[in-house]
Design goal:
Chain B: It comes from [Candida] railenensis. Chain B: Its cofactor is pyridoxal 5'-phosphate. Chain B: One of its GO terms (cellular component) is mitochondrion. The complex is a heterodimer of chains A (about 475) and B (about 500). Chain A has about 475 residues and is of the alpha/beta class. Chain A has two domains: about 5-35 and about 50-65 and about 375-470, Aspartate Aminotransferase, domain 1; about 90-370, Type I PLP-dependent aspartate aminotransferase-like (Major domain) (Aspartate Aminotransferase, domain 2, 3-Layer(aba) Sandwich). Chain A has helices at about 5, 25-35, 70-75, 80-90, 90-100, 110-120, 135-155, 165-170, 195-200, 230-250, 275-285, 355-370, 375-395, 420-430, 455-470, and strands spanning about 55-60, 65, 130, 180-185, 215-220, 255-260, 265, 270, 290-295, 320-325, 330-335, 400-405, 415, 435, 435-440, 445. A seven-stranded mixed β-sheet of chain A has the order 3-11-10-9-6-4-5, sandwiched between helices. In chain A, strands 12-13-16-15 form a four-stranded antiparallel β-sheet, covered by helices on one side. Chain A has a three-stranded mixed β-sheet with strand order 1-2-14. The longest helix of chain A has 22 residues, at about 375-395. Chain A starts with a helix and ends with a helix. With about 500 residues, chain B is of the alpha/beta class. Chain B folds into two domains: about 1-105 and about 395-495, Alpha-Beta Complex (Aspartate Aminotransferase, domain 1); about 115-395, Type I PLP-dependent aspartate aminotransferase-like (Major domain) (Aspartate Aminotransferase, domain 2, 3-Layer(aba) Sandwich). In chain B, helix 1 packs antiparallel against helix 16, helix 5 (about 105-115) packs antiparallel against helix 13 and helix 7 (about 135-140) runs parallel beside helix 13 (about 380-395). The model of chain B has no long low-confidence stretch (mean pLDDT about 95). The chains are: A alpha/beta (about 475), B alpha/beta (about 500). Chains A and B meet through helix 2, helix 4, helix 5, helix 6 and strand 3 of A and helix 3, helix 5, helix 6, helix 7 and strand 3 of B.
């Protein structure tokens, strides 16, 4: 029995489409009602989570859609997964929900076990974790850690703060509030709070009208596809981009404490970088004394065929911080250097310091992923799917261009001619019962769960072909 | 032996209270029939040996340097927090003011065990794209039913910091839109924003108050002005801070001076606004500056702030993360002010478990979708808990009960203050529910008091430089207040005889 059959013996055999347009009439009514109190303009449809199962999301009009978007890449093991249901009904979980502790001050007697479960699925080379609540929060906590670390190096890890620092910080000015930067990349997405939005460079709509830190941005490689055909050009592109990073480190007007990068720029268009590029970055961060933060919020937790996508790069040494959220349900950063823990207590601190309810769920997700070796399954299904999409690409080269994600399991994307064509494609796919998402202006990204199998891939490919055949 | 005598006295007090307790049905006795009637002390000191051992283990994977002791939440009940050694402490700190209805509240337990909750935990939606059919109703019956007067919309978030930051974003987008007039962004805005430069990136500011605490992410931390340790080494926006009134106590004896102090602060506020080099999009203020030392101001001051905001077209954000959800004797503390015009946004978190901001003006929702947006846009599992919390507060009239209990606490503490005027100063929070605080004369005396409380089985927290704050749950009744007061009195006798 396949894993999806084990988890979901009653999973639908295929999509069922009842509505002639999306959102359907019942969804529309409910959206209007919700919109009175909660901004509902981005709603695709209103879902019935009780009826959703495995890889299928059911809406309030009774449509059953194969979901390869999975709540913007954040459902790990399918809807209503029985193993997660067990975790959700466990005594430990119930307690975590009703007695939510301020874990920095009053950790529960089960906290060590909860954290140890998160550490069991830590990226290679990482053995500590600090928890947050969302991807944006995780990244900002990592930035704080980087700034503490950078100033600690400068001042001496155990040195006291100066009177001038203590005074100036209350005015938001240097030296207490130092001018330091985090370097990010064009088209990157790292969240939408103030510092995370400052390093986000995906689209204007993500950033407009917010004050931003004056931090530098480098260029992320733009490869030509297929990769096998353009090895020389793409290697040149890596060199060009690395030279820009080095130039920024040398010339930026203030010190750069950390660099943040996604293993695959997801919101920004599923842009990939080579192993050589990432090792080059690692070397530059060491050369210039900055921390390397790998943002695995979207790429992490198995979908690329490794538990953590950057493990594909075999970096030496390992990154300093790895942030996570989405599919892990809990959020935070992994690290290994004890000096990334600030010199004194209450610096990396807040009321909740994470959410044990979500940490317990993450532990259960990690356990299932390891038990069933789901990254290997994703890799197997991904190769199968990629090969089928390659064939489709040959048939429909206009609407399926720059196919990306070879050897990255189901973390696959491609581009269409323009935004209008892409948006039409996403809408049309609902008519064949597939919920699918876009990224950047003109791309489509596949973000299915980790229990997405060949049979689901077949339905997806047939759906794509049906739509493309009509173009 | 301090500990032995303390323990003996507690047992006596407990048996006295047990007699009284049967006479009146407190909400705690309904929720928690087996709640202890006094702290239970099992070990010679707290943290006890098991707590110490577990904390050492925990330290291998978690920065536990701020841990007071290791708790056993399963054994905790009502107003009593159990530690790993089986000590049960009367908790007037309640997870830094974030437990609403007591530990292991049976109604919350029902909610947590419901299928609705299980689904919210395991099928967490990207709320703004694929909301569940129930979410709207859950908001309407819970978070929105509790909305401050004059507010009928909410944007949900995950913590106090992110509630405040999403409110700041709403403010920046609103002000920019107003200035722009047109719904279209200019080419220059669209290109400059990708360089983090004006005009696309705003150079506007959020104004906050000295000693304010609004969180620790980068935008919220730029408005936090409580202590250096909260801010050091973190880059900050060059945003302005205005002075918050330093009132003299008792208020009745210093009416004239306090009025002058509030006028001074209002004058300074107006001056800062006029002289600030950039636009100020919004001002954020706590009804009581909590982390900053439980600093209060009068309704006159807040009405003055409201008037200045209106005059200069600055949005007024009231940060009710710590003050909200009943503890002040009103559901929202700012309702004590009777403002002529409601605040523009009110943020919440902590005791509500869910977080976010309330508002009324539809223009605080950006004209274009996907601007105030993120993957999760809140957490339905927390909205379910918030709904139960709201419904229980209404069912048992816990806001008014908290006011009554607060009166008892305040009056007795006032009497205690008159006995120890050189030790205990500036009692604050009259007619403000259980949201009470006072000062010691030094950090050390404050620390000695907090530590001694723990040894007597009371878990209590500090704030500011030398203050003690009471932040009990809403199920903290008269019986708990009397017990607490007796223990405090005993500690004062012990420490200062």
């Amino acid at each position: 029995m396949s894993i999806s059959e084990q988890y979901f013996p009653n999973e639908p055999k295929g999509p069922v489409v009842k509505s002639t347009e999306f959102p359907g009439p019942e969804s529309k009514t409910q959206i209007a009602s919700l919109n009175e109190v909660f901004d509902s303009r981005p709603v695709y449809f209103v879902a019935d989570y009780e009826k959703s199962l495995g890889n299928y999301i059911v809406d309030v009009d009774g449509n059953t859609l194969l979901d390869v978007y999975a709540q913007i890449a954040s459902i790990p093991l399918g809807y209503n997964n029985p193993a997660l249901l067990e975790a959700a009904k466990s005594d430990k979980m119930i307690r975590a929900i009703i007695d939510r502790p301020a874990i920095g001050n009053f950790p529960g007697s089960d906290l060590k076990e909860i954290i140890s479960d998160l550490l069991k699925v830590a990226p290679e080379g990482q053995d500590k974790v600090w928890s947050g609540l969302s991807g944006a929060d995780a990244n900002e906590l990592a930035f704080k850690a980087a700034f503490f670390w950078y100033q600690g190096k400068k001042r001496g890890f155990t040195a006291q703060f100066s009177a001038e620092e203590d005074k100036s910080v209350m005015e938001n000015i240097a030296p207490g509030s130092p001018e330091l930067a985090i370097l990010s990349f064009e088209r990157a997405f790292h969240g939408r709070l103030f510092a995370s939005a400052s390093v986000t460079r995906s689209k204007p709509v993500h950033k407009l009208d917010m004050p931003s830190f004056k931090w530098p941005k480098a260029q992320y490689p733009s490869y030509k596809y297929p990769l096998s055909k353009y090895e020389t050009e793409n290697a040149e592109e890596d060199k060009r981009c690395l030279a820009i990073v080095e130039e920024i480190f040398k010339t930026w007007h203030c010190p750069i404490a950390g660099l943040i990068i996604e293993p695959i720029q997801s919101e920004g268009g599923d842009n990939h970088g080579s192993n050589a590029f990432f090792q080059g970055l690692r070397d530059l961060t060491l050369k210039f004394g900055a921390l390397m933060i790998v943002d695995e919020v979207q790429t992490g937790v198995g979908a690329t065929g490794k538990l953590w996508c950057h493990e594909h790069f075999n970096l030496t040494p390992k990154p300093d911080l790895v942030t996570f959220s989405k599919k892990f349900q809990s959020a935070g950063y992994y690290f290994h250097d004890p000096e990334i823990i600030p010199n004194i207590a209450y610096r990396q601190f807040n009321t909740w310091c994470g959410d044990p309810a979500r940490m317990i769920l993450a532990g259960a997700i990690g356990k299932e992923i390891v038990k069933h070796d789901l990254p290997a399954l994703a890799a197997k299904v991904g190769s199968y799917l990629y090969a089928k999409l390659e064939l489709l690409q040959a048939k429909y080269p206009t609407y399926l261009r720059d196919l990306r994600g070879k050897d990255r399991a189901t973390f696959i994307a491609w581009s269409l001619p323009d935004a209008a064509a892409r948006n039409k494609f996403l809408t049309d796919m609902k008519s064949v019962g597939i919920n699918i998402g876009g990224c950047a202006e003109d791309s489509v990204r596949l973000r299915p769960t980790l229990v997405f199998e060949e049979k689901h891939a077949d339905i997806l490919v047939a759906g794509i072909e049906k739509i493309l055949a009509g173009y | 032996m301090l500990r032995r005598s303390a323990y003996k006295n507690l047992q006596q007090r407990a048996s006295q209270l047990q007699l009284k307790r049967s006479a009146s049905q407190s909400v705690a006795s309904i929720y928690f029939p087996s709640e202890p009637t006094a702290p239970v002390l099992k070990t010679e000191s707290i943290p006890g040996p098991k707590s110490v051992e577990l904390n050492e283990e925990l330290g291998k994977v978690f920065d536990n340097r701020a841990a007071y002791f290791v708790s056993d939440y399963k054994q905790s009940i009502g107003n009593y927090l159990s530690d790993a050694d089986g000590n049960k402490l009367l908790d007037v700190y309640a997870q830094i003011s974030s437990i609403a209805l007591g530990y292991n509240n049976p109604e919350l337990l029902k909610t947590a065990k419901s299928d609705e909750m299980a689904s919210a935990i395991i099928n967490r939606p990207a709320l703004a794209c694929f909301p569940s059919a129930e979410y709207g109703q859950v908001l309407k019956d819970g978070i929105l039913a509790a909305a401050p007067k004059g507010m009928n919309k909410v944007w949900t978030a995950l913590s106090g910091s992110c509630a405040n930051e999403t409110a700041y974003k709403a403010a920046f987008m609103y002000q920019a839109q107003k200035k722009r007039g047109s719904l279209d962004f200019t080419h220059e805005e669209l290109s400059s924003v990708m360089e983090n430069k004006a005009p696309g990136a705003s150079d506007s500011a959020i104004l906050s108050f000295e000693k304010g605490f609004h969180g620790r992410l980068f935008g919220s931390l730029s408005t936090t002005r409580s202590k250096a340790i909260h801010k050091l080494d973190i880059p900050a926006f060059p945003w302005p801070a205005a002075p918050f009134p330093k009132l003299k106590y008792p208020l009745d004896n210093h009416k004239h001076e306090n009025h002058a102090e509030e006028d001074r602060c209002l004058g300074e506020l107006e001056k800062i606004i006029k002289n600030h080099p950039t636009d100020i999009a919004a001002l954020i203020v706590e009804p009581v500056q909590s982390e900053g030392g439980d600093n209060h101001a009068t309704p006159y001051f807040f009405q003055g702030v409201r008037d200045i905001c209106t005059k200069y077209e600055i949005l007024m954000i009231v940060d009710e993360v710590q003050t909200g959800v009943g503890a002040s004797g009103k559901f929202w503390a700012h309702e004590h002010w009777n403002l002529t015009t409601p605040p523009d946004m009110v943020t919440f978190s902590k005791k509500f478990q869910a977080a976010g901001f309330y508002f009324k003006n539809p223009d605080l929702q950006p004209a274009q979708p996907y601007r105030q947006f993120n993957t999760w846009c809140g957490d339905p599992s927390k909205a379910l808990i918030a709904r139960t919390i709201y419904q229980e507060i209404e069912k048992y009239d816990l806001v008014n009960k908290t006011q009554e209990v607060g009166d008892i606490l305040y009056k007795s503490l006032d009497t205690l203050l008159s006995k120890y005027p050189t030790k205990m100063k500036n009692l604050r929070g009259e007619n403000f529910g259980t949201f009470i605080a006072w000062d010691f004369t030094s950090v050390l005396e404050r620390q000695e008091f907090l530590d001694t409380c723990r040894q007597y089985g009371v878990n209590i927290g500090g704030c500011g430089d030398s203050s003690v704050r009471l932040r009990p749950t809403l199920a903290f009744g008269e019986e708990h207040a009397k017990l607490f007061l007796g223990i405090v009195e005993e500690i004062f006798l012990k420490l200062y005889k």
